[in-house]
Amino acid sequence: MTTSIKKLPDIEQVLSGNGACGGCPATMALRIVGKALGSNAIMLLTPSCSVASMGMTPKLGYNWPGINICFATAGSSASGITHAVEILKEKGRLQGELPTVFSWVGDGGTYDIGFQALSAAAERNDNMIHFCYNNEAYSNTGVQRSGATPRGTFTTTTPTGKRQPKKNMALLMLEHNIPYVATATVAYPGDLYDKVVKAKNIPGMKYIEILAPCYLGWQFDMPETVQLSRMAVKSGAWLLWEAENGKISFNNPSSLIISGKKGADPVDEYVMKQGRFNRLLKGPDAESRIAEIQGDIDREIAFMRERAKITI
Amino acid sequence: MKAAQVIMATGANAAALAVKSARVDVVPGYPITPQTSIMEAMAAMVENGEMNARFIPVEGEHSAMAAAVAASAAGARVFTATSANGLLYMHEVLHMASGGRLPVVMVNVNRGIFAPWTLWADHQDSFAQRDTGWIQYHCSSNQEVFNTILQAFRVAEQTNIPVMVNFDGFAISHCLMPLTLPPQEDIDRFLPPHEPEWRLDPANPSSFSNVTMAAEYAQFRQMLSDDIIASIPLVKQAAQEYKDITGMWDGDTIDTYRLEDAEVVAFAVNSMAAELKLSIDILREQGIKAGLLRPRLYLPFPAEDIISALPQNAQVMVLDRNYNYGHPGGILASELKSVLFGRRNDITVKNRVMGIGGIDLTRRFMAAEIRAMMDE
Ligand SMILES: Cc1ncc(C[n+]2csc(CCOP(=O)(O)OP(=O)(O)O)c2C)c(N)n1
Ligand code: SF4
Ligand SMILES: [Mg+2]
């Protein structure tokens, strides 16, 4: 059973008064992650909205020791910290329980510039949790495309719409043979919480990706973050799944879509609610563009359904 | 008391043995010729239990320095090594190490830079990192490599400034020379365990390298600049105390040879400076009062020690194994001129670039070059 939102612990690791936008999905997600991780953790951040909004030196708006690192280095920096705390503990120079080492990184720092170092850390199976809060663009620098930006999306570097589909980063991480991979999103906080608790107790590399609808980049009304997150899941544009030791299972409501018990909502409503899509859907080619977006989603659902059957 | 042990070792081995005796905790590493054998030795020593440390086989040098910086911020004593393009690939993270005031120690085995490819030594790689805020030593023998790495850890941890220890590819890294290993208890006396004032600690949740306002940022920069200059007495103290404990001496900020009465002074770093001692002997036999001044410290550039060591009216022949693009000649010459200007108007500075991409620099060749420069 998924933990109910009412049962989440009271502990708050995201302190009040940070500089994020109202309704920021990244901050919302981090708040839930904090409830699962507790305070005995070391946080790494790459340049992103979560850094820009975390407050000024020497403190930070998150109640962990936090280190800002070079953009490409989440994987390698977290490896350095995790090995350091382990050997210092072995040598008796660090007392108490080992802290959880986790990176809090955007899709830019995960899919693109940080891909190489993250892949290497995964291959080494170094002990860490890599969180990717995925707002499907480089929001901090003013909304440019990333490898997580879906086809048909307006960004400031794809002004006529991105022509390539996004990559399936969570699946790529799974193919590194790491012990735990999960996807989540802010509309399902209990699901996210449970996945983080699970990851925290598994040694080795864990990857959790959280879809984070960002009103600024996606162009919807600020109070509708959670609604957009839910629509993404219900339309199948975002699938909730986890994989322990390589075995994929889907979580509700994505499991219903995968099993065919319940069809995915057509993507139209989800797309038309967002300026990043609908501003490009005013011309005569609107229908074929929507069909293309729908095609990418359908293909991904079909592919993940088949991929999950491979359990060797 | 145990006696020192003498073995035969390459420069690369000397470096690995120094890292082991420094009781380093974390070694991220990535291979590149001619540094590779250091990383191989480190991996082997960690795997076979000779060294109680973690070796992280990262996927590139940018990651090697990132892992080093992060492990250091977590409170570990950290070492890594690289060469040439590997060093350039680290460039962004070198600034994070110095700006973050993290006492990482790194060996750079000097090698010419791509393009076009070369495998052999020159000094473009380390000098190109001049403005990254690292302290830089340059060494001219295998023994000095060993000794300097231990001194580097002490200086780094006293100043919270990262230190780069440079030496030439092949001429040092791959050549066997006798190496004196002081007893471990002497080394432990010289280099106490690393106890950082600050580290990433969940009991004290503060930020590291977070956003600053302009006035604060400027203050961080000013402090780094001041502290790099203020490291000079600590470099000297480390060399002196190392000598008191082990009996070994390679110079402190500078090393000199037959300098006191010299009229012609050769000025160079690394292995060519060791060879230059023989060139000085040749020139002396020819009746030329020649001497050598070798800056052991390239950064901070030891201005005061150079100014006070140079004999009156000397002609200084700077032999640069690098280019100072946009200027005729090399980088050491312009560094030297900038410290002499207005302070030692009696000194003449002449400059030649040589030995690029590993071209052999023999004692006779360099003696002949110096003679020719005298007639310029
Ligand atoms: C090496 C380097 N290149 C570029 C940048 C500029 N930069 C800062 S944040 C950012 C985008 C971050 O995107 P993402 O990781 O998705 O986080 P988000 O801003 O969306 O939260 C970029 C390109 C940088 N800081 N460092
Ligand atoms: S731009 Fe988007 S991701 Fe960034 S702080 Fe605002 S809502 Fe959050
Ligand atoms: Mg993003």
In short:
The complex is a heterodimer of chains A (312) and B (376). Chain A is built from 13 helices and eight strands.
Corresponding CATH superfamily of chain A = Thiamin diphosphate (ThDP)-binding fold, Pyr/PP domains
Numbering strands along the chain, what is their spatial order in the largest sheet of chain B? 4-5-7-6-13
CATH fold name of the largest domain in chain B, please? Answer: Rossmann fold
Q: Overall 3D geometry of chain A?
A: globular
Ligand identities: thiamine diphosphate, iron/sulfur cluster, magnesium ion
Strand content of chain B: 15-25%
3D structure, described in words:
The complex is a heterodimer of chains A (312) and B (376). By secondary structure, chain A is α/β, with parallel strands linked by helices. Helix content of chain A is 38%, strand content 14%. Chain A has one domain (5-309): 3-Layer(aba) Sandwich (Rossmann fold). Chain A has 13 helices and 8 strands. In chain A, helix 1 crosses helix 7 (189-200) and helix 3 (74-90) packs parallel to helix 5 (115-124). The model of chain A has no long low-confidence stretch (mean pLDDT 97). Chain B folds into 2 domains: 5-245, Thiamin diphosphate (ThDP)-binding fold, Pyr/PP domains (Rossmann fold); 255-374, Rossmann fold. In chain B, the strands form 4 sheets. In chain B, strands 4-5-7-6-13 form a 5-stranded mixed beta sheet, sandwiched between helices. Chain B has a 5-stranded mixed beta sheet with strand order 10-12-11-14-15, sandwiched between helices. In chain B, strands 1-8 form a two-stranded antiparallel ribbon. Bound molecules: thiamine diphosphate, iron/sulfur cluster (SF4) and magnesium ion. Thiamine diphosphate (TPP) is lined by residues 47-50, 71, 106-109, 135, 137-141, 146 of chain A.
